[in-house]
Amino acid sequence: MPAGGGEPEPLTRPDAANGERDHHFPSLLPGGRGVLFTIVRESGYQNQTSVAVLDLETGRWRTLIQSGRQAEYVETGHLIYADGGALWAVGFNVRDLEVVGDPVPVLERIGRPNSVSNLAVSWRGTLAYAAAFEGEGLSLVWVDRRGNESPIAAPRRHYFQPRLSPDGTRIAVALNDDRGLAFWLWDFSLQRLTPLPVKDKSTGSFSVWSPDSRHLIFNGWAGGQSQLFRRAADGTGAETQLTSGDS
Question: With 0-12 CB in 10 A as exposed, 13-18 as middle and 19+ as buried, what is 239?
């Protein structure tokens, strides 16, 4: 898409005949000739991912790494990518868009084997990542800009995607544990964690607050498609579907 706005131009389309479902995690290479991306294929209960490169001069792409995802280039002349819950590095020739040599492990425990890893890297090689979680539950905490943590009194649960309300009084958070995926609210004044009723148990992820802290907009499912919904944060009334059609 032009930087000044305009119509987006498709660069790739998943090859359904070859089992491709999605193309994710684009990363532009130095010089602007190529784009790294992740091909997602469905395979039974798990997704298979591979790293590919798109040549912007020819419009063609090919697979570079058969098993991996979220590849990024660093100035040392390497690609780093996630696979099997670990971070790997392999030599890369930017001019020819070719992998050089064999991959080597860099870090362990950066994510679950078949899940997205939380990482980002600069071209100069500075890496930020979230280590894989191991344990019975997570705590909600405040963290200041120096990294100092202050606990929040919420019980330990499998929290993810916490969103602080603009007025600072509540946290909307998704829970994913043996009771399934659910949408909850932590109230600071009441010191209480309560469920927010939603139509479907797969509803309630990736939430954002309205500026007045009265409503939440979140991701859910309708007719087999991923859509956006809105719900009053106090739990009253029914949720409203905001989008329809394709996911």
Answer: buried
